[in-house]
Structure formats: C-alpha cells, structure tokens
Design brief:
Elements lengths: L1 E5 L10 E6 L8 H24 L17 H7 L1 E3 L6 H11 L6 E4 L4 E4 L11
Length: 128
C-alpha cells in the first residue's frame, strides 16, 4: 500500500508522479485501516512537498506499470459467497477485512435471495 502525489491529467490516476511513499500492510488491517493510513500519508506528501509545488520546483516521473480499474459489478461478484458452498475461516476473515469500509459489505446468495452483510469492524483481540 502507499500514497502517491501526482500531477492531475485527463486520465484517472495517470499523471506524472511528484512524490510517492510505500508502506507495508499488517495482516490485521482492514480496508478502512488501509484507506485511512494511505490518506494520512497522502496528506503528509502534500504537506512535505507543498513549497516545492508552489515554487514549481519539483521533478516528475512518468508512471510505469499497469493501472487497474474494476467495475462495481466485478467487485460485487468477487465479494459474493454462495450459501451451499464451504468457505475456510481464513477466506471469510480476508473477505471481511477487504469489505470493512464505507459499508461495502459482502453478499450471500441463497437459492432465491441475496443478502448483504455489512462489517463495521474487524478487530484483532489476540496475537500469537
């Protein structure tokens, strides 16, 4: 995970990079934790580079690599579990951590209905 300060262009998140920071993700972090940490790091990047930006004294680096985007339909499909299949505890924990942000939730599909399960928090209470 990380944060990037980049020049805004027409393409979403495609502008040249002004500054960037990378951080590790702890296994107990939820999507909300990742977003909050990343947002704070983005604000730190802006604060730390603000003078150079206002003076137009920065160097930009073209973005490399592949930018991925996902549709809402893809995300819903990836976060739907079927009631008649078995899932490991690890899978359910990872799914819960991944959707624990902005009331995203995951879905349980039965024969005739679809339920949305919203996770407000996933808390580590004991560490080995």
């Amino acid at each position: 995970m990380g944060a990037t300060l980049h020049w805004i262009t027409e393409g979403l998140d495609e502008g040249p990079i002004i500054a960037q920071v990378a951080m590790g993700i702890k296994s107990s972090m939820t999507a909300q934790d990742v977003q909050q940490t990343s947002n704070q790091e983005a604000m730190n990047l802006l604060q730390n580079n603000n003078i150079q930006i206002m003076k137009v004294e920065w160097s930009m680096e073209e973005q490399t690599g592949h930018i991925t985007r996902h549709s809402k339909k893809e995300i819903i499909s990836a976060s739907t579990i079927n009631h008649d299949l078995e899932y490991s505890g690890e899978y359910l924990l990872r799914l819960s951590r991944a959707v624990c942000n902005k009331k995203n939730g995951f879905y349980i599909k039965t024969k005739n209905e679809v339920y949305k399960v919203v996770i407000d928090s996933v808390l580590l209470i004991e560490e080995n």
